Amino acid sequence: MIGCSLKEVENLPEALNDRLQEDFSFIVIPLFNTTYDQNEFRVVPATRSDTVLSSYEWKHYIAGRISDWIDFDSPSYSVQQNSLKALRQEFDWAQHISITTMTLPTPLWNCSNYASAIVSIIDEVYLNLWVDVPLISDIDMNKLRDADDVDAIQYETIDNSWECWNKFRTLCGHNKKISVNLILTETVPDDHVIDTWACEPVAALTIPTDIFTTNDLGFPVLTKGHQKVVSRFFQFNVQIIIKGEPQHEKGYTVYRQYISWLHENTPVQVQFESVGGSYQDFLQNPLQPLMDNLSSQTYEVFEKDPIKYQSYGDAIALALTEGEFVKNKDEIILMVLGAGRGPLVRQAMRASKETGKSLKIYAVEKNPNAVITLLNMAKLDPEWENVTVINSDIRKWEPTELADIVVSELLGSFGDNELSPECLYDAQHLLKQGGISIPSDYTSYLAPLSSPILFNKANKGTKKSLEAGYVVQFHRVDILDEPQECFKFLHPEYDQQKLTLTKNLTFNIAKNTIIHGFAGYFDSVLYGDINISINPPTHTPGMFSWFPLYIPLTEPLYVKKDTEVTVTIRRINDGAKVWYEWGVTEPILTAIHNPGGRSWWIGL
Length: 604
Known about the structure:
single chain, 604 residues, alpha/beta, seven-stranded antiparallel beta sheet, 15 helices, 27% strand
């Protein structure tokens, strides 16, 4: 949606009609008279009647703007008090006329009274609040201040607008009603600044008309740098607002047309619509594979990932042709441990055909519902004549013969978080000494991240919700350093089968930011040189079976540029369940998260 911000409006119905005729979706207007004496509180609201528009028009086409003169942090007590009264009056009027969104002035560093005023009223209103924040950094922030006020300049010790916004929203308790209206300026900041804003709750992107340039045909266009920023935010479905007087004879129309053209010509990121729609920044609880049986729909979603299963099939084929343990055998016994509805069985069959190696396959599955599917396959499909279906927990099954190769797909987003080590160690009795395991190893990785959106979604008002891991397709997330290796498991493992592990990791944070938790990934060697990975540096192209794991902090951690942050994470197995504990040890100490698995655990 594209809106138009108007500074002053004399005839609102006419102004709205003109913008709608130009295909704008909404307009942003000051709700009250813009000329006002700060020292005298208005007894009668200086605004138009609510009857000039219908309730539908107010609700769907109008966003309000708080009066510019309001200054909660003014040195004048009377201005502070009148500002607070005016804020309540304007919010009350906005709700009366059914407006859903109000824009708020830019917070400066000295914004304590401003934040206090918003906090005092925010729970009483049903409004979305968009805070105007210019996309600038370094000393450019001083342009927003009174250069003659030397004391104010000395007090304003921060160096960019993100710092002001961060202080304001922190004072407001990270309230979910407060978002950002990010305003482009003449200069485009470095990519790391854009990355910071990309993970913030930016609801709207305002583009002033005076930053447009003119092309050879005389039409307004944006510079390449501005185009890159706007295109970046298109993927977040933000509202676009054109602000300022039109600099072209055709008025606002050409600006709206240009933004529409830019949107149409911005490449769309494919977000796995094939698996049932987008899961961007949607928190999901990790599976409990040993406690719960997967549904048919869940199996169906996983089976739509051709890259994963192609990789498994290639790994099986490589093991059949190059594995010393099976190279000279006439018939090879292969067990699929956790066969589900049979995708790995089919890949084993494909590998058998391609290599000419004869396989005797056991499909072992504990889920009785999935076993029905497997039994039907074995009965109806002639290619399954060499497949024996076993309904059993792989840890408890006692076979009449042992496997040359075992194949499993028990990995979770963090590698071991769906208890692949516990399952495969306890199922190692199924494999002949020296036999082959696919996968042969897997490693978890951890990296610090910033994402107010993920934090707010995880924060349900209790510590429990912030002491749990969530499977998430990262979207509005800023990964703050390269992922580092965490826990590694090998299969088969004949020496030390360690299931309780501790890792200390130190990350360097290259900019001022807030850490909201950690991203968990994994990579795995299936066999030989065939890998699958969701770790960003080595991510398997096109594979979507796993999204990363989000591991929150209970309190966001503000850190300065070039700070070293150390986190300790433990994986604990007590014989009945497995859980993770984590906490920051540098530069400050946090409490241990999830002690004893009190909030999040995986049952054995």
